[in-house]
UniProtKB/TrEMBL annotation:
Domain Ku: 53-183
Transmembrane segments: none
CDD domains named in the record: KU_like
Functional note: With LigD forms a non-homologous end joining (NHEJ) DNA repair enzyme, which repairs dsDNA breaks with reduced fidelity. Binds linear dsDNA with 5'- and 3'- overhangs but not closed circular dsDNA nor ssDNA. Recruits and stimulates the ligase activity of LigD.
InterPro entries from the UniProt entry: DNA_bd_Ku70/Ku80 (IPR006164), Prok_Ku (IPR009187), SPOC-like_C_dom_sf (IPR016194)
Name of this chain's protein: Non-homologous end joining protein Ku
Family: Belongs to the prokaryotic Ku family.
Length: 325
C-alpha cells in the first residue's frame, strides 16, 4: 500500500478536508553505478577542496551564492532556516480558474490527494464533484520539505490530483529566449487543408497503454543477456538518409501513409466486416451471372419452340400431300 509523503488538509473558504499526499508517478529510468574499468571496484564522488585537493567533511560545508563577478555570498544553515517558509499543514485554495487557462508548461509533477479518514470522505467527495461540475481548477500554495510550491488541484476520475507548478517568473518567454521562432506565415487554403488532413488521419483515441519506453526495454534486455553470459549483438546498420521533399509533397505522402497505417490497424470486428463485404461481392456477381444465364436460356427456349412448331407443321403438310397423291 502506498504511503503518504505529506499529511495535512485542503482549505477552501471555511471548509477543511484532511488529506494525504501520494506520488502519482514513478521514475522507471534504468540507473547504473560507476566502476573502475576492468575491475569490480565502485567509484564514488567525494567533496574535495578545489585548492588543497583534500576531502571536506559534510558538516564543514556551507552554501554560497554566486554574485556573477567572481564574488560569493556565504550563508549558513542557521541563516537559511530563519528565512524558510513557516511549516504549514494546509493546502490553501485561494482561487479557482478555468482548466483551459493553464498551459501545461506550468506543471511540474503530479500527486494524488486522498481523504485522510472516513470522516473526511464526505467533504472530499463534495469538493471533487463540485469542481467536476463547475469545470474549475483550484490554485493553492503548499509548503513541503521546507520549500514553498504553487499548486493546481484538479478532479480526475474519482480522485483529486495536485500538480506542483512553476511560478510565473520561472517560465521562459519563447519570444525572448528563442530568436529562431518564425513570424506568422500565410498559407493557402489548400496547404492548410492538406496539413489538417494529416492531423485528422493521425487522430486516434488516447490510450496511455499503447505507448512504452522501448529504449528502457532494450537496456533491460541487454543487462539480462549479459548477466546470463550471452554475447550481445547489435545492428550497426545506419538508418538511410531521408529523401528530401518539398513541404506539400511531404504532407501528401504523410497523409497517404497515415491512412494506410490506420487501415492496417483496424480492429478484428472491422476486419471481419471487410472480409464479409469482400466475400459478398463475388457472390452478388455470380448471382447476376446466373440470372443472366437463366434469362438467356429462357429466350433461347422461347425462340426454339416456335421454330419446332413450324417444323412440325411443315412435316404435317408434306404427309397430307403424299396421301392425296
Amino acid at each position: 500500500m502506498a504511503r503518504a509523503i505529506w499529511s495535512g488538509s485542503i482549505g477552501f473558504g471555511l471548509v477543511n478536508v484532511p488529506v494525504g499526499l501520494y506520488s502519482a508517478t514513478e521514475d522507471k529510468t534504468v540507473h547504473f553505478n560507476q566502476f573502475e574499468k576492468g575491475t569490480d571496484d565502485r567509484v564514488r564522488n567525494k567533496r574535495v577542496n578545489e585548492d588543497t585537493g583534500k576531502e571536506v567533511k559534510y558538516s564543514d560545508i556551507v552554501k554560497g551564492y554566486d554574485l556573477g563577478d567572481g564574488r560569493h555570498v556565504i550563508v549558513t544553515p542557521d541563516e537559511l532556516e530563519e528565512v524558510e517558509p513557516g511549516r504549514s499543514s494546509t493546502i490553501e485554495i485561494t482561487d479557482f480558474v478555468e482548466a483551459a487557462d493553464i498551459d501545461p508548461v506550468h506543471y511540474r509533477r503530479s500527486y494524488y490527494l486522498a481523504p485522510a479518514s472516513d470522516d473526511a470522505a464526505r467533504p472530499y467527495g463534495l469538493l471533487l464533484q463540485a469542481m467536476e461540475k463547475a469545470g474549475r481548477i483550484g490554485i493553492a500554495t503548499l509548503v513541503m520539505r521546507n520549500k514553498q510550491y504553487l499548486a493546481a488541484i484538479r478532479p480526475h476520475d474519482r480522485v483529486l490530483v495536485l500538480e506542483t507548478m512553476y511560478f510565473g517568473d520561472e517560465v521562459r518567454d519563447p519570444a525572448d529566449e528563442l530568436p529562431s521562432i518564425p513570424r506568422k506565415a500565410k498559407f493557402s487554403d489548400k496547404d492548410l487543408k492538406t496539413a489538417i488532413g494529416l492531423i485528422e488521419a493521425l487522430t486516434t483515441e488516447w490510450k496511455p497503454e499503447n505507448y512504452a519506453d522501448t529504449y528502457r526495454d532494450r537496456v533491460l534486455q541487454l543487462v539480462k543477456a549479459k548477466a546470463k553470459g550471452r554475447e550481445v549483438v547489435t545492428d550497426d546498420d545506419a538508418e538511410p538518409e531521408a529523401e528530401v521533399l518539398d513541404l506539400m509533397e511531404a504532407l501528401r505522402r504523410s497523409v497517404d501513409a497515415a491512412k494506410s497505417r490506420k487501415g492496417a490497424g483496424n480492429t478484428e470486428t472491422g476486419k471481419l466486416k471487410t472480409r464479409k463485404a469482400e466475400d459478398e461481392k463475388p457472390k452478388k456477381k455470380t448471382a447476376t451471372k446466373k440470372t443472366a444465364a437463366k434469362k438467356t436460356a429462357a429466350k433461347e427456349t422461347a425462340a426454339k419452340k416456335p421454330a419446332a412448331k413450324k417444323t412440325a407443321a411443315k412435316k404435317g403438310t408434306k404427309r397430307s400431300a403424299r396421301k392425296a397423291s
